[in-house]
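Action item from last week, closing it out:
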Amino acid sequence: KITIYNGINVKKLPNIKKEDIFTIIAIGALRDIKGFDELIQAVKELDFQCQLWIVGDGEQREELENLINKLNLEKKVKLLGYREDTHILQAKSHLQVINSKREGFSRVLIEGFFYCDVVISTKVAGSVEVLDEKFLFDFGRVKEKIEDVYKNYNEYKKDFEKLKTKFCTNGNKKICRIK
């Protein structure tokens, strides 16, 4: 028996320029299980300049908007809603965070292999199977992990590139489908 992961059709990227400020992206349905509230709290506590883009829509939108306003993060945290251009946003950002309490094998994780410089995740299904321990963190520890990535960004980027090579080549279709 083998596990076949759901692949994606890779979209070509135009010439992308990274954001000038350290940009964190999180993508998913705005639901409690995704941990966006904790991620917003973590961004409030970070001691370096950054911005957070949350892409998606859902039942928790108003609650997250209220939290952003309460913490005076309107300039730092943006709820971007549902978007068709997530691959471009991923490529413009520096870090993708999957902060779920529970998760199946995530399509966002697969997309991260193609479009992101670095992806970190809570220890949820799929992520624990393909990400090295370096890219995993326990739920509730996202702030510390983001700080470590920021301080050691080039090292994380280099090591994530190695994972991309391992999983996203024509010779290994375990996770990524390349045409």
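Closing note: The radius of gyration is 16 Å.
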